[in-house]
Amino acid sequence: VPLGDWTTLRLGEGQCDITEACLEGMRAGEKCEIQLTPTGTGLEASVRQPSDGALPLCATVELQAFTPGKESWEMSPIERWEWVKSHKERGGGRFRSGDVWGAADSYSRALKLLIPLCGLVGEVEDCLEETQQLPSSDQLKIKKAELHSNLSLCQLKLNQPQRAKDSAAKATQLEPSTYKAWYRLGQACQKLNELDEAKEAFKKLLELQPDLPAAVKALKEITSREKERNVQLGLRLSKMFS
């Protein structure tokens, strides 16, 4: 944390939370100390120091008690499904509050539980009475596509275009009618300068949502970039053979 800046030390889920790394290796009653030190040197590190001059700044985390949970393989299908819904809902709340890293973590956790659940329900859908309380295989597939699409949006905002492309592509494969995933796939391909793939994604989006302004605008931008690319290519070729 640069000296003079503020950050929030927050207890919660996921690798994005600073305190999580401390808590993972702690037992009930143990304490952990976090030290905040300047990252700069010289004048940059000497400005806006604490009034008492005490460095490093310290924070103490104490794990007073905890409730043991279950590993995913210990959960029943219904328990897994409830956690999938919980993580998805938490991801939405985190995203709306501006915590994009946290949202991505929650969506990833939901997917890790949902992927094996889809296989389990598909194999024993007609055999186990318990699965009758779960969504059907098709409904689970739609939920899986939604999670991949939501994760893709987070990855775009975190400037991870390749991961965003992979997530959006999975969403479109699972549910070809999910127009949001096609839009995010097009955006990711644009960021990767894969203009042909971006164009195909936005064309597919227009098939689902005709005259959608965002897709029309994106296609115009791609056409403009393609023309610019062709002009530059022509100039390079003319220099090679002149």
TrEMBL record:
Record keyword Cytoplasm present: no
Pfam families for the chain: TPR_1 (PF00515)
Record keyword Hydrolase present: no
Residues in TPR repeats: 179-212
Keywords assigned by UniProt, alphabetized: TPR repeat
Stored InterPro entries: FKBP4/5/8-like (IPR050754), TPR-like_helical_dom_sf (IPR011990), TPR_rpt (IPR019734)
SUPFAM superfamilies for this protein: TPR-like (SSF48452)
Protein name: FK506-binding protein-like
